């Protein structure tokens, strides 16, 4: 009678395992947790089938097959159960491939010992049709299985102590499910009962887990793979199933809404109504929290928590792979600082309007300064170009006066040169006034203009030597114009103030620096009085973050040294 009842229970256990496995293969969300659950069901089926064969078989070989099937399930059941517990609680060791691999290696080793028992007799000492006497390997196998199950129970208990609401209930069910096989197997091993109900107890345990799945939907509504992210995000998040139960709360939610202790969405909605500040009541938002929604819903609420907090609320529906509603996710993002900033910006906007009026007044002043700056630029250009022209023109005219009555042909030639100089000066004056730069110059044009400058002064008895050490380096147009203006002003000053008749101009580029040297043989000076021309040269060089130095020994000669970084205007 007892055997018949045991076979019936084992058969029912096996059929239940098949049914649950098929159901979750068809309808469960694919995850490691689900697969480990299904593997447990498969092992229960194998254990039950092997035990049935062992009980009813009268054939030695068939009974041996039953014992081998039963041994396979025993070797791996504890390992799979431990792995399932670690996955469910998101234990870090579940991701340790070496540890999990080692556990399964132990299971494989145990099963090899069972298959090779004929050679060593470690698993069972006597194997007969009517009796089996187990050996030391069986004891070790049983001990390891107890270790696995006890560890699973410890992990579940430790996890449940940290949870609240439905998740705590889920964990309690799983703890009970873990303890049942331990009790059943202990009663059998200690000979309190004659029939081994261990596979049946495992089946009952998995049935309890299945009930937890149907009742709390923890394998559908809350995939355990996202728990770590769920608990670490800054937003306060609560998961609600389609029965109106709060399934889970993340750490931020528990900390923010620490006064709320309920487990249903109706209680939470009532709590929010009591805490809301202001006259605005978002009916659509509150209804979506209470009843759910098929489309995302967003809104804002101000709640009387810690001197008032403003939250951006987002309600997202949860659907399974068949697009069926299984719950919703409600997130509360604290935007209090943002709202305070918006209010401050509104006040600042008023202040900016007043400031804008004042800026308009300042703009008028800046326009006047711009006019003054342009006036100074034009004055500098006129001084550089016209001053040079007039100085040269005076020298030519003085030569013509000296030639009058002595060398009329040379006098006429001087007058022609003076006329040409006057026309060129008039042209440069117009260019300065209309802010039109002379034609593109480049390095070659710079030295062509310097050669032309030397040729112009040659007729007045002024010798200008130009040394080009730039090699193949290119000087851009803006820098070229600056260098020419400096040379032009320096030559004019040498002739006008120093009575020089010999001037050396040297231009070289090395060490990422353009260097200009201008040396004359005119009268020296002890003290350098910086007039408009020298100040203009300094301003031009300063534009390129360069350096200009003026020097004289006080007796004879005057020299100018200019350094301009190649990166600032020279390439």
From TrEMBL:
Ranges annotated as spanning the membrane: 6-26, 33-52, 64-87, 99-120, 132-159, 171-188, 200-218
Keyword Nucleotide-binding attached: yes
Domain Signal transduction histidine kinase subgroup 3 dimerisation and phosphoacceptor span(s) in chain numbering: 374-438
An example molecular function term from Gene Ontology annotations: protein dimerization activity
Transmembrane keyword on record: yes
Top EC class for this record: transferase
The reaction(s) this protein catalyses: ATP + protein L-histidine = ADP + protein N-phospho-L-histidine
Alphabetized CDD domains for the sequence: HATPase_UhpB-NarQ-NarX-like (cd16917)
GO (cellular component) term, any one: membrane
Highest rank taxon of the organism: Bacteria
Domain named Histidine kinase N-terminal 7TM region: residues: 11-223
Keywords from the UniProt entry: ATP-binding, Kinase, Membrane, Nucleotide-binding, Phosphoprotein, Transferase, Transmembrane, Transmembrane helix, Two-component regulatory system
Cross-referenced InterPro entries: HATPase_C_sf, HisKA_7TM, PAS-like_dom_sf, Sensor_HK_TwoCompSys, Sig_transdc_His_kin_sub3_dim/P
Enzyme nomenclature, EC number: 2.7.13.3
Gene3D superfamilies with a match to the protein in the record: 1.20.5.1930, Histidine kinase-like ATPase, C-terminal domain, PAS domain
PANTHER family: NITRATE/NITRITE SENSOR PROTEIN NARX-RELATED, NITRATE_NITRITE SENSOR PROTEIN NARQ
Name of the featured protein: histidine kinase
Species of provenance: Clostridium beijerinckii
Chain's gene name: liaS
